[in-house]
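User: quick one
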Amino acid sequence: MRMYDIINKKKHGEHFTKEEIQFWVEGYNRGQIPDYQVSALLMAICFQGMNEEETLALTLAMRDSGEVLDLSKITGIKVDKHSTGGVGDKTSLVLTPMIAALGIPVAKMSGRGLGHTGGTIDKLECFPGFTTELSEAQFYENVNQIKMAIMSQTANLAPADQKLYALRDVTATVDQISLIAASIMSKKLAANADAIVLDVKTGNGAFMKSEEDAFALAREMVRIGQNAGKQISAVITDMDQPLGAAVGNSLEVKEAILALNGLGPKDFMEVVYGLGTELVLAAGKAEHPEAAKELLRGTIQSKSALHKFAEFVKAQGGNMDLVYQPELLPVGRIQLQVLNTEVGYVSRILAEEIGLASLVLGGGRITKESKIDLSVGVLLNKKRGDRVQPGETLATVFANDMEKAKEAYGRVVRAYQFQDEPMVEIPMIKGIVR
Ligand code: URA
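Assistant: Done. Structure below.
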């Protein structure tokens, strides 16, 4: 087989065989095929696309380029949840302890944030001592004992995807739906839970700006999961404004703790319950969505999810006292209030601008190596649909550097849009693909 012929084939819109896909994925992973040939191939895929069989073969080849976890050491139906990335998305912090509190084992691999979206691991590191660098044995033991563990993605999990993603990032070939679906699913399949729920975000702050693209991505991922023998569903959720009020690591952790105490923002809880329902149904703990929701509500009312979260923080080395005293979490020294000058209703809050505001404050990572400031971010005092009067606070910027605070302030001002008429409430859940 020659790489030249494979590139040429795709250039002319033909389909790869499974063997051809294995050839170039394995060859690239082993360093036997150069970047320039794979770059040309990726660009050809962007123009010509891939069919269902090709996308599945690519996913499985990337999954098999490294280790596939053996979760058979954990008893029960293991569940995993994945988000395509959003601004203010602290869903995992609340949802995973709710699910674990119901006795459903959550074996989750997470990543760090990059760009304007945050990552679960960074947020959890707000608890001094917390680590996601667990050995596999520790990971299995924690899930068996307390029903949840979150581990950082190891270098040996779908390494071909890691190499290809880095190449796509610099060759303008990230935004092709089959490539995204295969990339995400290769890691989920290597993490190997029995049931997977995907949160596919759509809107200004998301990868998928249009609902049409979000549904297309969701359908491709669900198809891959089903073909690989997984129980899988995807929930398409709104990311046209940040989720909840808090954006920035410690601010989001505080909001998550409020949510575990029954005080979560409405939009955020709608997403938590939407995803949670899918997980509870997949684990066979309830027969229909209402019953699943009822079980989930019970974990908040009884505080069992809050206590589970504290137990989890402790099991992974963190200071669990902060779960009960979130006021001790770090906050930026400088607090700037963004004051409103309009009369009307908030019609939109560009999530990407708010994510970028948090990034310039130091709350996010520009490169993989950046060190982040956990204490900075933006708290939204007004959300979509809220009526506003001049002089009211729209949002508060938390910073440790005045220059950065001013830049973030400008971004927050640009993010808010208004209209004269009251808004019709926009549902957070746009649809479910099963
Ligand atoms: N996230 C991934 O893991 N892969 C992609 O291709 C895009 C988003």
